[in-house]
Automatic annotation (TrEMBL):
Signal peptide span: none
Family annotation (Pfam families): UreD
Keywords: Chaperone, Cytoplasm, Nickel insertion
Family under the similarity heading: Belongs to the UreD family.
Subcellular location: Cytoplasm
Protein name: Urease accessory protein UreD
Organism classification: Bacteria, Bacillati, Actinomycetota, Actinomycetes, Kitasatosporales
Example of a GO cellular component annotation carried by this entry: cytoplasm
């Protein structure tokens, strides 16, 4: 088809999943759109604190080298959604070591609430993955975003992992961040970046109430830092030996940002 870019590899998967949450008119939330393709299989799993809850279930291995995956999550005005996953995402290589992409697009309307809580992303040896997370927020929207990346499975070298996080409020940039790890990434294992650690986690909280009562900067524990942003938001970054260690420190940092 004219204008369509070819896939990176003949056996690659191109798949998009979509989830939309809306206010149900009774003080709660409902899911009006839930659709998946390929390895992305969203499932309605009840509610969490009055908000709708959707869990991503892996219908097949992915992303494999060359795959192009995308997830669109939309929270309409006044709605709430918790989005999580049933298992870790494992980036795997193909025989040609082709690169794969996983693009996540989040949108939250006025007085909407979104919790983005996927299980860890694991970069297996020889895999090449570029993941982007882009969030568009209304001025009164709330976002709780928690992500953990692990470089390599047990006793193996990591693959190449590039993650990009972009957040905008009313079209204005709040956070633009790019992390690049693994073979070929400049200085990724130096003391200035990971310093020998193999897992990194981030917790981003965007809440209009932080305008009046901003979070305090600090170091809640070794390998963790709390950074208030220039807006109603705070970012916690944690380094650790594995996903379990990073998750524990992120939990310990919650009092700093709530």
């Amino acid at each position: 088809m004219a204008g369509r870019k070819p896939l990176a590899h003949p056996s690659a998967v191109c798949a998009t999943a979509r989830v939309t949450a809306v206010a149900d008119g009774r003080g709660g939330s409902a899911v009006s759109v839930i659709r998946g393709e390929g390895p992305l299989a969203p499932r309605l799993t009840g509610s969490a604190d009055g908000d709708a809850r959707v869990t991503l279930v892996g219908a097949m291995s992915g992303p494999l080298g060359g795959d192009r995956l995308a997830l669109d999550v939309r929270v309409e005005d006044g709605a709430g959604l918790r989005m999580d996953s049933a298992a870790a995402t494992l980036a795997l290589p193909n025989r040609d070591d082709a690169a794969s992409r996983y693009d996540v697009r989040l949108s939250v309307g006025e007085h909407g609430r979104l919790q983005w809580r996927p299980e860890p992303l694991i970069s297996a040896s020889r895999s090449v993955l570029r993941q982007t997370v882009h969030a568009e927020l209304a001025p009164t929207a709330r976002l709780f975003l928690r992500e953990v990346s692990v470089l390599g499975r047990s006793c193996e070298e990591p693959g190449r992992l590039t993650t990009c996080l972009s957040v905008r409020i009313s079209g204005r940039p709040l956070l633009q961040q790019r992390l690049d790890f693994g073979p070929g990434a400049l200085g990724w294992d130096s003391a200035a970046v990971l310093g020998g650690h193999r897992a990194v986690g981030q917790l981003l909280v965007v809440d209009p109430e932080l305008d009046a009562a901003p979070a305090e900067p600090g170091v809640p524990s070794p390998g963790a830092v709390v950074t208030p942003l220039a807006g109603p938001a705070v970012l916690v970054t944690v380094l650790g030996e594995d996903a379990l260690a990073v998750s524990r420190v992120l939990n310990e940092a919650l009092p700093w940002v709530s």
